Amino acid sequence: MSLFELLEPTIAGMGYELVDIEQSAPGRLLRVFIDKKEGSITLDDCVAISNHLSQLLAVENIDYNRLEVSSPGLDRPLKKKADFVRYMGESARIRLRIALQGQRNFVGTLVEVNDDVLTLNADGKLLQIELRNLEKARLIPKL
User: Fold this and answer.
1) DSSP 3-state assignment of 136?
2) Other beta carbons within 10 Å of 3
3) φ, ψ for residue 134 (rounded to 5)?
4) What is the pLDDT at residue 37?
5) Do 122 and 107 touch, CB atoms closer than 8 A?
6) How confident is the model at residue 143 (pLDDT cuts 50, 70, 90)?
7) Could you give the CA distance from residue 90 to residue 99 in angstroms, rounded to a whole number?
8) pLDDT tens-digit series, residues 45-90
9) Of all helices (H) and strands (E), which one includes residue 18?
10) Closest CA to 120 of 101, 18, 37
11) Least C-beta-crowded within 10 Å: which of 51, 108, 122, 124?
């Protein structure tokens, strides 16, 4: 079982979404990014998750020196199909594994997701991008 699979149901059970996990060399830093459907992540949210995960990681005998829990930030990564659905109409920066029309990097508006294919409006052109071809996708913050 992966660490993501271990933590996701616990975090979901507390009313949050596990966005991402970053690990440095084994046994060092474990960084967990959380979000929630309504509102912003607060310091109290991070403390509650951190306290709960500390106990879970101890029980599961997961070795780490430092645990950090935070929000994913304004430029939130988009990883799952549900992320793209949730942020339809928002602007995103997309990097592909395999080039599309000779290009791997795109900036555009998320239009829709059907059958694991994302439609992105990039400079007025509607691009069809298979989700499995995404290397990286992040929201572009509204300032």
Assistant:
1) strand
2) 15
3) -80, 125
4) 84
5) yes
6) confident
7) 22
8) 999 999 999 999 999 998 889 999 999 999 999 999 999 999 999 9
9) strand 17-23
10) 101
11) 124
Nearest residue to 65 via CA among 28, 21, 26, 25: 28
Enumerate the CATH 3.30.300.70 domain ranges in the chain, comma separated.
3-70
Written as one string, the DSSP assignment of 66-135 is: EEEEE---TT-B--SHHHHHHTTTSEEEEEEEEEETTEEEEEEEEEEEETTEEEEEETTEEEEEEGGGEE
Superfamily of domain 81-139: Ribosome maturation factor RimP, C-terminal domain (2.30.30.180)
Beta bridge partners of 49: none
The confidence score (pLDDT) of residue 69 equals 97
The CATH 2.30.30.180 portion of the chain extends over 81-139
Q: Where on the phi/psi map is residue 137: left (φ > 0), alpha (ψ -120 to 50), or beta?
A: beta
Query: Is 77:95 a contact under the CB 8 Å cutoff?
Result: no
**Third-level CATH fold of 3-70:** GMP Synthetase; Chain A, domain 3 (3.30.300)
Q: Residue 98 forms beta bridges with which residues?
A: none
Element housing 17 (H / E): strand 17-23
